[in-house]
Every structure is written in C-alpha cells, then in structure tokens.
Specification:
With 345 residues, the chain is α/β, with parallel strands linked by helices. It has 2 domains: 179 residues, TIM Barrel; 86 residues, no CATH class. The protein is built from 12 helices and 10 strands. Strands 1-2-3-4-5 form a 5-stranded parallel beta sheet, with helices on one face. Strands 7-8-9 form a 3-stranded antiparallel beta sheet, covered by helices on one side. Strand 2, helix 3 and strand 3 form a beta-alpha-beta unit. Helix 1 runs parallel beside helix 2 and helix 2 packs parallel to helix 3. It is globular and about 60 Å long. The two termini are 13 Å apart. The relative contact order is 0.13.
Amino acid sequence: MALTRRCPLACRHCSTNSLMNLPNNPVEPFVQLVDTFTAEEHPELVLMSGGEALLQAETVRKIAQRSRAVGTRSYVLSGMYFARESRIPTPIKRAIDSVDHFAASIDAFHEEEVERSAVIEVLRQLMSEGKDVSIQIVGLDDEDPYLEEAIDDLRTSLDDRVPILVGHVNSAGRAAEWLHHDAPPVLASSAATPSPCAMASWPLVRFDGNIIACCNQDVVDVDVIPEHLLIGNARHDSWESVRERTLTRELMRAVRLIGPEALAARTDRCSPGYCGTCMTLSHDHLAKERAKELVESPSISRLESAMGSMLATGGAAAFVRNYGSPRYAELVLLGQDRRSVTCAG
C-alpha cells in the first residue's frame, strides 16, 4: 500500500519522487480495502510505504489493527525523518507499536537528510521494547564502498541482531536525472529462456486507489495502467475479488510462470526489455492467445505449484539474490530467530 506521495525528506535517489508539496491523496480507500479482509479470506502480509507512510500515522495504526483482527500481519517502511528529534512523536510511536514489523531506510542519500546514528538510536529503542525491526539500504552497486562501510557499522552497532535488505539504486524517480542504466532492445528469440516474474506476485494499491498486479515503480507512476496489470480499485473492490483476478488472469499467470520476454518470444516479436515487454502485453492479441494456451495446459497447475514451492524453499535470501544484492543477500537472515516477519516480506 503506497499510502502517500508526500515526504519531509528530499533524497536525491527517491524512486517515487516524493515531496511535501505534492497532493495528499485520500487514505479512506486503503482502510476500506482492509475492511474487506475476513478471517477466511485475507492476505498474509500488508506492507505500507509511500512517500513517507508515517505522515499517515493514524491510518497506519488503523490498517495494522484491523489487519491483525483477521490474521493479517503488517509492516511499515519509513525514511526515518522523525529520528532527527530527541524522542519519537506520540502519534508515530503509536503507529509503530501497532505494526508487526518496522523497517527503516538507511543509505548515503538518506544520511544527507537524517544522521545514521540517530536512526540507530531509534532502532535500539524499539528493539529494547521487543519490536521486530529491519533495515533497507541501497548502494550504486555491490562494489559501492559506502555499502561496505555502512553495513559494517550497522552490524556492529546493532550486534548482528537486525536483518538488512540490500538493494541497488534504480534509474527511477529523481535518480533517473543522474543515473542511467540503458539497455538496447533484444530479439525475443534471445530472451526465450523462461524467467518467472516475482514482482507480479505482489498486488499494490497505488496512491490513487488503483490496484495493480505489479510492484514495479514504472507501473506505480504510469498515467494509463496496462489493462492486464489493473486488477481493481480500493474504493469499491474487495480483497477476495482482487485475489481472484491476481490468481486467474491468464496473462499474469504466464508472466509469473515464464516471464514476459519468454511469452513474447512465442510470438516472434522483438523485446524492449523485460518490464518494457510486459507493459505492452495488453495490446498483443497473439501474446494473449499464447498465454491462454500455456495456462490451459493439463500440467500447468502442477507446474505453478512446483514454482511456488521452489520460491518458498529458496526463502528471503534467494529472492534478494535475484532482485537485489547478490553479495549481501544473506544479511536478510541476521537475527532470524528473533523476528516474526522477514524483512524481504
């Protein structure tokens, strides 16, 4: 749930381009969607972010409490703007106390806004109270010297008790102005090897209430959402209907199973890249036919089940190796026996 695009910080790498002067979207749709969770039909985990989710502290608290009542765990990610104060403001503390897991962003760009030592002190306080916490940190790549220095400091300061999710800065949001990862289009035939998309397994509620079948920032920001990626709106859809569309939509099943490029390869078309290909699938009638053929195969349900088991067996570290930092992937397992919600979800 992307609760807001507002943020008191102005980090140079912000993928959501968040600022305090952006419009404040209504939060009611997020709560309305959570109110459709039932004991029989609910997601395992609700993640709340922004912008700065804790600008909507009361909404975070409501979502966490109502989620827990039906068996859903909650997680909030913060840029830690409040750590600059000598104490955690009461509304923010109530929100943090209500969630099952609290994650803090620390990196070179956040440190231009909030000192690392201040964030560490907040985490120490929360840990002393028994709160499940983790850290998210990004660098330019795995060889970024900042990562090595900061991770050593964090591990020492927090006694290796806090899991650390390490990623790389993407050319999105404000980072797109100074970071470029240009990749030329490739022929579909050279991208025909199946590459399942885990990003299409996380329904995301955008700032405007639209629910998309992908947590890629490009989809969060796009003005016109591709038809196959739009799976509902929090204002009027229930979790049951969102889940049903996520699991049964043929194009999405094919993308999760073999990836968009391998699907496009079955139509002999050129690929503008992994995510770029997916964004065009709604207009590709032949790709829709190939997806339908794939998911109607007699063995497909067994294959999907096997894929799910492989992902579950691989765990958080395997997920990070594929979608984050291979060098530091195992750091998500720090303090594993002390937490109930892994920092990779």
